[in-house]
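User: what does the whole thing look like in 3D?
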Amino acid sequence: MLDHIRENIEAKIGQPLTTSEFELLGALFTSVHVQKKAQFVTEGSLHRTMYFVERGATHTYVIDKRGERHTIQFGFDGYWVGDIYSMFSGKPAIFHIEALESTELFAISHDDFEHACKLIPKYEHFVRILFQNAYAGSLQRIASSFSDDAEQRYLTLIEKQPDLPQRVPQYLVASYLGIKPQSLSRIRKNLVKRS
Amino acid sequence: MLDHIRENIEAKIGQPLTTSEFELLGALFTSVHVQKKAQFVTEGSLHRTMYFVERGATHTYVIDKRGERHTIQFGFDGYWVGDIYSMFSGKPAIFHIEALESTELFAISHDDFEHACKLIPKYEHFVRILFQNAYAGSLQRIASSFSDDAEQRYLTLIEKQPDLPQRVPQYLVASYLGIKPQSLSRIRKNLVKRS
DNA sequence: CGAAAATTTGACATGACTCAACTGGAGTGG
DNA sequence: CCACTCCAGTTGAGTCATGTCAAATTTTCG
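Assistant: Here's the predicted 3D structure for the full assembly of 390 residues, as structure tokens:
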């Protein structure tokens, strides 16, 4: 069951884990099943856990003072998700995370995570690359929110993740783009008209 | 001269570097002086270097198709800056970086950086924490751009970094907030009027 | 001091939002 | 297997936050 995690790590670090490394690591993960629409991380409560998405889809979001949800990120098969702020600061979570479908996760606690980083240099190396890539990606998202209008951001998004519209409802795509569902609907209408 | 880097690393990992670790590491950095307004990273050209800001201020930005600049981040004393996309992907840089003041940097090349990560576990650990924090911060910035209007983002910014207005011109603060200088001027006028 | 740059202000434009109504498909139960 | 309901998506009309253009004013600095 943990094969995907192993592949995920080995692919990122470009070298295999030894059997003993993998066994040590594997023992730190626990399997978690989350039903569709169930929330497994809640803003405001401590949540020092990271998750590997084995199968399914997750939705990390904030709720603003008017009660609107805004998508921070999606998580699909092979993604790592969690409230990394709470995870590493030990303060309350700043995001909500819920399953968009019935989802299988592997969870690792903060302490086990740090333990693994200490004991298995390849794991810390992997985590470094993970965060490095995630950071680079989020900077690009910030850059695009500055430079591009909503239509362009939508086009860029479906170019990078063509399957996204099939996996999540349109109002969540809108929320990820930082616009309202009505606006995305109009943008799409316009694109069709002009094509 | 490298004392600040040492302190910076030791503070993040919560333990001292040994003399030999520090000497090994120190040999990989070269000192770079950049004049005010000089650009030392340019979008479109390969730039596989990371910098530690010893003294001064830097400005990482993108230029959109209309020629407008948008601030991705500032770098002050003790910050690490660079085009991490180019650094780690080996592709052309996506950002411009220039000095806002006369600035002293310490530079480390990509190869030396990876070399240091391999040889000095504490260094990889440090880098992991660096990116982990940077990533968490950028997610919060994305969240705030969704949830808050420009006035609220400005208030949050000056609360978190009260010295920012003293160190950078207002039009750059506006650009960091994702608005025009005129809009920030009006926001400030409004705040004064209401206080 | 004087030129250039930054900031402010005014009048107007616009992209995205709001509110509200309508459409259509998916599921549910009689 | 039809009627009902629910919810995502679409559409229309009016509003609002921020942008645009342009000019005036203040600050910076050689």
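In plain terms: Chain B has a mean pLDDT of 97. The longest helix of chain B spans residues 121-147.
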